Every structure is written in structure tokens, then in C-alpha cells.
Amino acid sequence: MNPNRPISEVMTSNLVTVGPQATARTIKDIFDQHEFHHLPVVEGNEKLLGIISKQDFYKVAYVLSLQTTGRTWSEKEYEVLTARDLMTDHPLTLEPEDTIGLAADIFLANQFHAIPVVEDDRLIGLITTHDLLMYSFNSPIVEEWP
After folding, report:
1. CA distances from 138 to 13, 127, 131, 141, 143 (A)
2. What is the distance between the alpha carbons of residues 41 and 95, in angstroms, rounded to a whole number?
3. Nearest partner of 20 among 46, 37, 43, judged by Cα
4. What is the pTM of this model?
5. What DSSP line would sit under 66-78, residue for residue?
6. Torsion sign over Cα 43, 58, 137, 98
7. 146 pLDDT above the threshold of 50
8. What does each C-alpha distance from 70 to 27, 77, 86 come to in angstroms?
């Protein structure tokens, strides 16, 4: 594995995104229909505003369930809460030419598992710990002999 390769070679670029006014119901449906765990929030020409992790979304859903008198109330809240309410705004970002090693260092030093990749203030991809594992797993093994 070469940690000096650019993240653009391993990042996920076919992304599902939402706008800041997307409802919690829409976000839940997206997470229920897809295997991914991070949903970028964008506006206009793919300008990144924030990111919502599946874990953070379900933490909010759990708190709602504790604060409500029933499912009907929670369902109504899902129509009121928006992506802007749920997202982590101003997430740390990388650029496509940043290295795989840098992304790995950031993941190891922090508690998150996805970093948006931006170019000219526009979201172009997402690098995840899963992407790095796949890259490592699929890389040829080079053994050095003394």
C-alpha cells in the first residue's frame, strides 16, 4: 500500500446528497435504503454545508423517542426537523490531491469515519475508513527481504 497516493484514487465520488431543507423523514428514508453511513448536505452547485452520520441521526431519533408520548409525535417531528438541524456544519475537508496517508492519520486521531473531499469549494467525493480498508486489502503485498 502506498500512503502517498492521492485520495482521489480511492474516494467515493458517486454520492447521494441532500439540501439543507430536507426533512428528517427524507434523511431516514435515504439511510434505510442505502448501505452508506454518511450523508453530505449541499446547496447550490454542490457547495458543502455539512454532513450527517447515520449514527448521529439515530442518536437524535432515540432522544426523540424518549421525549415523546408516542410514535405519531415522533413522526411529526421527522417532518419538522431538517438536514440543517441535524448536520455537523463546517466539517473538516480534504482536497483530491491530499494523500491516503494524511486521511489515515486524520481518521486515527479523531472519532469520525468520513471526510468530504472538496475542490474549488465544491463537493466532489467522500473518503471513508471503508475506502481505505478496501484500498489496503486490494493492494499488492510487497515483501522486503534483508
Report:
1. 19, 16, 11, 9, 15
2. 17
3. 43
4. 0.87
5. HHSSSHHHHHHHH
6. positive
7. no
8. 20, 11, 21
| SS percent in the chain: helix, strand, coil, step 5 | 40, 25, 35
Q: Which of 15, 14, 8 is nearest to 95 (CA)?
A: 8
* Exposed / middle / buried, residue 106 (Cβ in 10 Å: 0-12, 13-18, 19+): middle
What is the number of other CB atoms lying within 10 angstroms of the CB of residue 79? 11
Helix axes 24-33, 71-80, angle to 10 degrees: 100
Which residue reads 522486503 in cell numbers?
A: 144
**Which domains occur in the chain, in start order?**
7-138 (3.10.580.10)
CA separation for the pair 10, 145 (Å, rounded): 29
Amino acid type, 103:
A
The pLDDT tens digits for 58-68 are 998 888 878 76
